[in-house]
Specification:
Blueprint: H1 2-6, E1 21-23, H2 25-31, E2 34-38, H3 50-64, E3 69-75, H4 79-90, E4 94-100, H5 109-116, E5 120-124, H6 129-145, E6 150-153, H7 160-180, E7 186-191, H8 195-207, E8 212-217, H9 222-239, E9 250-252, H10 265-278, H11 287-299, E10 308-312
Parallel strand pairs: 2-10, 3-4, 3-6, 4-5, 7-8, 7-10, 8-9
Antiparallel strand pairs: 1-2
The structure holds pyridoxal-5'-phosphate.
Residues 49-50, 79-80, 156, 158, 190-197, 286-287, 314-316 line the site of pyridoxal-5'-phosphate.
Length: 322
């Protein structure tokens, strides 16, 4: 059903191969619950991560519009900007990145890769999303005056087109359930700009899947994140020309710590547990916090012990090398 709906927008080509889902045997044993992992850290392009799924569709849309220039915004260590830079390089498109934060004298992590992919980078001291977006609109205007055909993407690539990446991922989850005769009760995912969770919530709305998709906020308060996700789901449904009844959106802001990007002890403990038990590397900003939230839900009886849980590993583990 989902594939049929995505075909409502015939120009969107998708080239990603499905990622693997498997049971985390040792972590499941420790927590006496069945915990599975969707390895979207291995989406296979420029180190992968959830942003590969979004850009898979965004770049297809950009090419369809005849764009020759991608414009993306994010923090200095943005995973989205790294993958946008890689797509642009491979597709022979110019990539402009507006990064919020200080220029690093010796670039590390994602920024090092942005330079490797030959992105044109400018920096801003603004930290407020709305200010960064308006600065990027000014850059878009300037590039257009220079004759470039620009495809501008907001923070995290969370537009209806980007969200379709995770509607498609949700379809992979349903296929896995069917093939393996299993039914997940809960999905846990790190939620920032909201597009990843929105894609799966839209999938739930379309199919009537009755598990819970729990977004672990990495920065926004629950109320704000809830509204952002709801709007993304509705706008994506409209873009796909379908009518849906919006399901309950579940998010929590309890695992952010001091603020976005600040490490937490619980997040670090989750990183350590995944590394030493499963050989899976999480990061401090997104997936470590999401895993710490999931573990807390299990430990504190917020979900039933016989539950089947799917953890979405959204990538970002380059952060370990910053
Ligand atoms: C590694 C990683 N996980 C999760 C997220 C959150 O995804 P979204 O912005 O779609 O909510 C991001 C966003 O930057 C990310 O880089």
């Amino acid at each position: 059903m989902i594939q049929q709906i995505i075909k409502n927008i015939p120009h969107l080509n998708h080239s990603m191969i499905p990622t693997s889902i498997y049971k985390l045997n040792k972590i499941s044993k420790i927590h006496n619950t069945d915990i599975f992992c969707m390895r979207d850290d291995m989406t296979g392009f420029a180190f992968g991560g959830n942003k590969t799924r979004k850009l898979d569709y965004l770049v297809s849309d950009a090419k369809n519009q005849g764009a020759n220039t991608l414009l993306a915004v994010g923090a200095v260590q943005s995973n989205f900007c790294r993958i946008a830079a890689a797509y642009g390089a491979v597709e022979n498109m110019q990539v402009h990145l507006l990064l919020s934060g200080q220029k690093e004298t010796i670039p590390s992590g994602n920024l090092l890769l942005d330079y490797l992919f030959k992105a044109k980078i400018s920096y801003t001291n603004s930290t407020e999303n709305s200010k960064i977006e308006s600065e990027s609109i000014a850059i878009e205007k300037k590039l257009k005056r220079e004759g470039k055909k620009v495809y501008r993407m907001p923070m995290g690539g969370s537009t209806p087109v980007g969200v379709i990446g995770y509607l498609n991922a949700f379809d992979e989850i349903l296929s896995y359930e069917k093939k393996n005769n299993i039914k997940f009760d809960y999905i846990f995912v790190a939620s920032g700009s909201g597009g990843t969770q929105a894609g799966m919530v839209l999938g739930k709305a379309i199919t009537g899947w009755d598990g819970d998709i729990i977004g672990i906020s990495v920065g926004r308060n629950s109320g704000e994140l809830n509204t952002v996700i709801k709007n993304l789901v509705l706008n994506t449904a409209e873009y796909l020309k379908i009518r849906i009844k919006i399901p309950d959106i579940k998010v929590t802001d309890k695992y952010i710590g001091k603020s976005y990007g600040e490490h937490t002890i619980a997040g670090f403990n989750a990183i350590s547990a995944f590394a030493t038990n499963e050989g899976i590397i999480l990061d401090n900003v997104y997936t470590g916090k999401a895993a710490s939230g999931m573990i807390d839900f299990i430990k504190n009886g917020k979900i039933e012990t016989d539950s089947k849980i799917l953890f979405i590993h959204t990538g970002g583990n380059i952060e370990i090398f910053e």
